[in-house]
Amino acid sequence: MTHADRPLVLRLVLLALLLGVAPARAEHVNTIVVDGVISAATADFVEKAIAESETDGAAALLILLDTPGGVLDPTKDIVQALLNAKVPTIVYVSPQGAWAASAGTFITLAANVAAMAPGTSIGAASPVGGGTSEERDEEGTRTDVMGQKVENFTSAFIESIAQERDRNVEWAVKAVREAEAIGAAEALELDVVDIVARDRDDLFAQIEGREVAVSGESRTLEFSDAAFRPIEMTPLEKVFDFIANPNVAMLLMMGAILGIMLEVNSPGIFVPGAIGLVCLILAVFAFDLLPFSFLGLVLMFVGVGLMIAEMFVSAYGVLLLGGMAFFLFGGMMLFDMPEVSDVTVDFWGVLLPAAVGMASFGVLAVVAIGRSFRRKQTAGVSEMIGQVGRAATPLAPEGRVFVRGEYWNARSDEELPVDASVEVIEVQGMRLRVRRAAGDF
Questions:
Q1: What is the DSSP pairing of strand 121-123 with strand 113-116?
Q2: How do residues 312-337 score in pLDDT, each as one tens digit?
Q3: Cβ–Cβ < 8 Å for 26, 275
Q4: 123: which residues sit within 8 A by CB, 6+ positions away?
Q5: What is the CATH number of domain 26-234?
Q6: Going by CATH, does the domain composed of 381-436 fall within 2.40.50.140?
Q7: What is the pLDDT of residues 32-51, one digit of tens each?
């Protein structure tokens, strides 16, 4: 090696040392938004985002969270994905006024970094539905077996998450057993979350240089040069995420029932039937994504059947009121499954208006049918009765008459001359039975 080559070699050696010693900086941070009910569609989206972040070299995955709760199985899947992620995960409860309620509490505690914006809240993680007894003994222990079983399981689940992430275990258990909820400042004080940050820039400024455990290894978070790269749901994922909501599923089912009923009552309109079919298909997908009670579904259909029966049976509103009662009870039970979900149908905002809407539809149908029965018939052979015409030939006692623009064979109990006014009193096949019309002498 010549003297001239030595500087080049030294530079190459120095570059190799720098590449081997200097920490590699990631170029971007992936971000996703999780809002609304936690469902199977949400779990698939979060798992996909974690897998993509692991493969594309992201410095971290930021999850912007705002949820009222959700289904237990998808929540467990998300927690499992966060605990086993090979990329640092950050859950940031935002914007101001957002919730990390119920299922959101589990997700927040499972992240490497848990952060909240001012004015947000976390907790109320008790998986309790409206149809489950919450009676407790003097020591505060639930007395119903199913409720106690669910509570013990979710308590152990959240306790293990808090222990794994070195967060306040005592408070985490209280969030389940006592449904305790707290704000951002108190959550930081109690060591439930790591950071309270005004916005995303403030959040990343505070966590710069923080040590976190990722896949059992300590990793330093460095984001000074990282860009933020959003990961969006596909259009199909957005549809599934939207319909995986008990309130939306209920409205879709009602739309399917009403649309199909209108099409059956008025064949050929097509539009109500098409809308009802689309709602039915989406409702099937929604019920596949959500845990539901078959008993509640049966009671709802019984209620709808009773309300429909009121249209054809004169029950003076008894069937209608019974149908509403069955519909409401079934709707309250439909998604009330605390062992697998902590979300139910909004009674005042969705269920009651749906029941009233169905009942109103039934009342209108009954009134319309009643009016049609009372209205004089305007079509058909029976409409001939009472019509007035003239004798086209002498009736002695048979002949022909001209009624309603047509010539008919007719018979009269008395002889009538040509052009005499006649009134139809009976239709006998293709022959009319007539008499002299009143006022004709």
A1: unpaired
A2: 776 777 888 888 888 888 888 887 76
A3: no
A4: 100, 101, 105, 175, 179, 180, 181, 182
A5: 3.90.226.10
A6: yes
A7: 999 988 999 999 999 999 99
